[in-house]
Design goal:
Distance between the termini: 55 Å
Helix content: 40-55%
Largest sheet: 4 strands, mixed
Shape: globular
Order of helices and strands: HHHHHEEEEEEEEHHHHHH
Strand content: 5-15%
Number of helices: 11
Radius of gyration: 22 Å
Oligomer: single chain
Number of strands: 8
Structural class: alpha+beta
Length: 394
């Protein structure tokens, strides 16, 4: 059985065979994947060793100490946090072999084609259609929106309606979409920050082979739940040290600017510090639970806490810094590789945090999930549950 000692031995062998100082970065990442040290809880041959998830920290610590290159998780977070666990659970052997290695090494960036202009909070109402052709493959037409990294992506996880004659949750199928297909058009969405990290994506006659379907036809909603639960953990459950993240920036501002301190701002900062620490410790417990199985609705609670704290802390920071909090370094239209909350100024954090309660499931939807699936409260009345999608008012 793989234990910490065995993992340290395997990591030492990897470093000896591929010294980080003299090995090409991509070559090292591929070798790490092949050695089963990418995500140790994955199966052997797929970047893992069937080891407990908690032991990944052992490998990461050894590699960090040796100066080994990372795979830039901020750039490939959708692939790591959403596509990979879904492919692992629902993909065929061929799909796992084809997609997981270049996904983890960052050779292929992924995006998520879920939300639509008329299907955001009510995602199951999506209207993008996938129709089977004479050869058994699929032709997809529709529009997706708020797609992070679409301008960088090689592949996308996509849900589309394959049967409009059944209720909305039952007529959806899940696919892997080739973003280089000529029928895929990506347009930037400029945000309040001035950047365009999000996109809208138009799909016109996009051909998807049936071999790129995940799960059974019509059962895409069930597959999508795995993606969504992992997404919320990925957003809200990022591991941070004590006084790390945005609360660390706020605390540093407080210590550096004594002339701006007031009693009221001090009391509010202390309250936010405690809440951030509670959220951090709760996240540690959630990650421990993940070692025993798939993420559950608790991830929705973590994502809720993350969004609220990000907005409240950034609001406190802007207020504390007074006129300096309103400065903004650059409104140039950019299409960044990722989001950098810590490396920018207070004005950027304040504006970007507004999206935290929308992306990855709105806070209103997540409150319903926590109420129903964690607290066991009765669900809200739904009149469309048994109505065919084609008969729903739009």
């Amino acid at each position: 059985m793989t234990d910490a000692t065995d993992l340290r031995r395997r990591t030492a062998e990897l470093l000896a065979a591929h010294p980080p100082a003299t090995t090409d970065r991509l070559e090292f990442l591929r070798a790490r994947f092949d050695a089963g040290l990418a995500w140790v809880h994955f199966p052997e041959g797929l970047g893992g060793l069937d080891a407990p998830r908690s032991l990944q920290a052992v490998v990461d610590a050894e590699l960090e100490a040796a100066g080994a290159p990372g795979n830039d998780p901020g750039r490939i977070g959708i692939g790591l946090g959403m596509a990979a666990p879904t492919i692992l659970r629902f993909g065929t052997d061929e799909q796992k072999q084809r997609f997981l290695r270049p996904l983890w090494t960052g050779e292929e960036v992924w995006c998520q084609l879920f939300s639509e202009p008329g299907a955001g909070s009510d995602l199951a109402a999506l209207a993008t259609r996938a129709v089977r052709d004479d050869g058994g493959d699929w032709i997809v037409d529709g529009q997706k929106v708020w797609t992070s990294s679409a301008h960088l992506a090689r592949w996308a996880i996509l849900i589309a309606r394959t049967d409009p004659d059944v209720p909305k949750h039952r007529g959806i199928s899940y696919f892997v979409c080739d973003m280089t297909h000529p029928g895929v058009e990506v347009r930037p969405l400029r945000q309040i920050t001035g950047e365009a990290e999000f996109n809208e994506v138009f799909l016109t006659g996009v051909e998807i082979p049936d071999a790129h379907r995940l799960g059974a036809v019509g059962e895409g909603w069930q597959v999508a739940q795995t993606t969504l639960m992992n997404e919320r953990v990925a957003i809200g459950g990022v591991r941070t040290p004590r006084e790390g993240g945005m609360i660390g920036v706020a605390a540093a501002d407080w210590r550096a600017r004594p002339e701006l301190r007031t009693h009221d701002l001090h009391q509010r900062l202390l309250k936010l510090w405690v809440e951030a620490e509670v959220a951090r410790l709760t996240g540690e417990r959630l990650r421990q639970q993940l070692t025993k199985g798939q993420p559950g609705p608790e991830g929705s609670g973590m994502k809720l806490a993350f969004a609220r704290l990000a907005q409240e802390i950034s609001g406190w920071e802007v207020e504390f810094l007074a006129e300096d909090g309103l400065t903004y370094d650059d409104w140039t239209m950019r299409r960044p590789d990722g989001v950098d909350f810590i490396g920018r100024e207070a004005g950027y954090r304040y504006l970007r945090a507004k999206g935290n309660s929308i992306e990855g499931g709105t806070s209103e939807v997540l409150l319903n999930i926590v109420a129903e699936r964690v607290l066991g409260l009765p669900p809200e009345p739904r009149t469309d549950k048994d109505v065919a999608w084609k008969d729903l008012p739009r």
